[in-house]
Structure formats: structure tokens, C-alpha cells
Amino acid sequence: MSRRTTSALTALCLGLVLTACSGDGDDDPTVTAPSTAPSTSASAAATSGPAVAGDFSSTAELAAALNTDGLTCTELQDGQFPGVSSAQSCILNESEDVVLLVFASEAEQAEYLANKDALASAVVGDGWAVQTVLPESARAVAEVIGGAVVAGEQASG
């Protein structure tokens, strides 16, 4: 399967709408603050990552951090993600399209966690997230940059 086909399937699975410009979203404080273990739907399993997560104030900082310790984050593209102020995508390790998210507020991060695609996995830190398709990718990301892994439904099967 080509990298572009994989990227297209990933975008479909994640329910992304990526464009060439940054986007804004709505706030919905329906989930507890993400500074502790993130809340997820009953169908997603949460697993803890390293105790100390990196402090990232931009998606560029997240991308730079991913380009260490055996991971690569290439083909960085600006985009929009529903309800999130700052989003970019990149190809993780030349095989998986992932989304880098930096939240403008705790409410915005809570909105993301409450409405995250149930099949997607993510690594969540204080004010940021990296959304992946595969739970093993999320675990690899958490090993490098910290954060809590929120495994999608496919992890239980």
C-alpha cells in the first residue's frame, strides 16, 4: 500500500478535514480537565504513559520533538481539525498520517477528548495531543514525548 493510500485511509478513519490553513473550533467543557488521565468514551481504553510529558506550545514544537529517538515526523502540513485551534498533520515514520494538536484552552482539550473518533488512538499531554490510527504508534510517541495513551476501540480486538 502506498504512503498516499495509507494517508487517505487514515484521514478517512480519523474523520479529518485537513486544509492548507489553520482553523478555529468551538468549546464544550463536558469532560474533566485533561491534566490528569484523560476521559474517554466507554469504548476506548486508557493506558498511562510516562509520568512527565513534554511542554509544547505549538504544533511545530511537537513535530520537532517527534523527530528524535527513532521517530520521524515528515511532510508537515497545516490543517483544520474540528473544534481545535491549532492542528497540523505529518507522516510518522514514513507510514502513518498523524495529527498534531495544540489546544487554546482546557475546555478545547476537553471537547477533543469527549468527541475523539472512537477508533483513533492518541497521546495526550497538558494542552496538546498527537492523534494516531494505531495504538502501537501512540505508545511509541508517548515513549519519546511523554503523555497518556488513549487507545482506540481497535486496541481491544
Element-level helix/strand string? HEHEEEHEEHE
Number of separate structural domains: 1
Uncertain parts: 1-52
Total of DSSP H or I helical runs spanning 4+ residues: 4
What characterizes the major β-sheet?
7 strands, antiparallel
Question: What spatial order of strands do you see in the largest sheet?
Answer: 1-7-5-6-4-3-2
Round the mean pLDDT to the nearest integer and report it.
72
N-C termini distance: 23 Å
Overall, the morphology is globular
What's the number of extended β-strand segments?
7
**Rg calc:** 14 Å
Going by helix content, strand content and strand pairing, the class is alpha+beta
- Level of helix content? 25-40%
Strand content: 25-35%
How is the quaternary structure best described? single chain
